[in-house]
Amino acid sequence: MASKIVNNQERFDWVEYPVQDNVRLEVYWRSDRGGHGPAASLYFHDDEVLRFDCFGGDEGHCHVNLKQTRGQRWYYPEGTVKENIKQSGFDLRKNYLFCILSHQDDRIRRLKIDPEKLEIAANQMENRLTEIAAQLNML
Questions:
Q1: pLDDT at 93 (0 to 100)
Q2: What is the mean pLDDT of each run of 10 residues along the chain (139 residues)?
Q3: How many Cα atoms occupy the beta-carbon half-sphere of 89 within 13 Å?
Q4: Contact 76/62 with Cβ under 8 angstroms?
Q5: How far apart are CA 62 and CA 51, in angstroms?
């Protein structure tokens, strides 16, 4: 698996899951001043619209429409990495539409996501995040 640098953050064991045209999900782990642990990013038209940072404790959080919100964090309830992963799966399945409807880019607001393809990607994300957490001894 590859590494990738995005916004000066190195993403380790990076894997990409295409969802449909102009929609992809990336799963990886990171260890930087922002936190340590499994993470995933949902992209619409190369814009990171959701990032899930499954760091556990009181550090698990997500980001919504990162460019618009300048990376502000929406924290998860205090919990385990496994609970953060479960919350991330829920947010991906249920809250992606908020990212579309609240986005400033017309191309993104016009996106129609195939729910069956999104469900497949959500399952892949949860499985890979769990594998990463096990590798990092975070379960």
A1: 96
A2: 70 92 95 92 94 96 85 92 97 92 92 96 97 95
A3: 18
A4: yes
A5: 5
Query: For the chain, what is the domain count?
Result: 1
User: How many other CB atoms are there within 10 angstroms of residue 48's CB atom?
Assistant: 18
Residue count of the chain = 139
Q: Is 76 exposed, middle or buried (0-12, 13-18, 19+ CB in 10 A)?
A: buried
Q: In what order do the strands lie in the sheet with 61-64?
A: 2-6, 9-20, 23-32, 35-44, 47-53, 61-64, 74-75
pLDDT at 109: 92
What's the pTM?
0.91
C-alpha 91/C-alpha 106 separation (Å) is 22
- Domain hosting residue 115, numbered range: 2-135
Report the C-alpha gap between 101 and 105 in whole angstroms. Answer: 10
